[in-house]
Request: fold
Amino acid sequence: MSALRVAIIEDEPEFRLRFERILAAEPDLVVVGSASDAAGGRALVARGAADLYLVDLGLPDGDGRDLIRLAVRGRPDVDVLVITVFGDDAHVLSAIEAGATGYLLKDTEPRDVVKWVRTLRSGGSPLNPVIARRLLQRFRAGAPARASPPPSDAPAPTEPSPLSTRESEILRLLAKGLSYVEIGETLGISAHTVTQHIKSIYRKLSVRSRGEAVFEALQMGILAAPVPRR
Reply:
């Protein structure tokens, strides 16, 4: 199997060099380029040589979210792992909406980056645990109480979820960062069946990536309920 090609866009030299060294030491990963600013990042994206980008959001000459949009627009199958100091809801949600498929904070141990890169490419969607919990709590708290009738001047209720019960279960596990194999083991189905369900989820939600699917499902309230125990 060919090596996974990774590009790094990070303005802090210490982090950038550390990521380069750690990733380059892995036989199945190859660093195809790095940049310290948005201009260099745009040049990397234009080359189209990477399968996965590590992107910081706070760049000296631009916003990393613009680079995420650019990368995903050029190659919908590319993965983008955000590693940043910004942990607020606005940055997280807008990065996922832009196309990020993973979101970690810079307090993540550098040696763990390899693990998260592999998780991402094996079907997982790594999120910093604190961020993931807060997002789910936020949308759960903001979900309308379906048992209570809406006020007379309220807008019409949204349509029911387009996802089946099984698809909703899979999406919730995907949002927790589980790989396709782990989801299959949890639900007692094969990884191939998980893949087929996820393709159906993408089609029903009109999205192209795991990050977009999680974001859209959060917006719709599909992830408001906890994953049922099996």
The radius of gyration is 18 Å. Residues 143-158, 225-230 have pLDDT under 50 and may be disordered. Strands lie at 4-9, 29-35, 52-55, 58-59, 62-63, 79-84, 102-105.
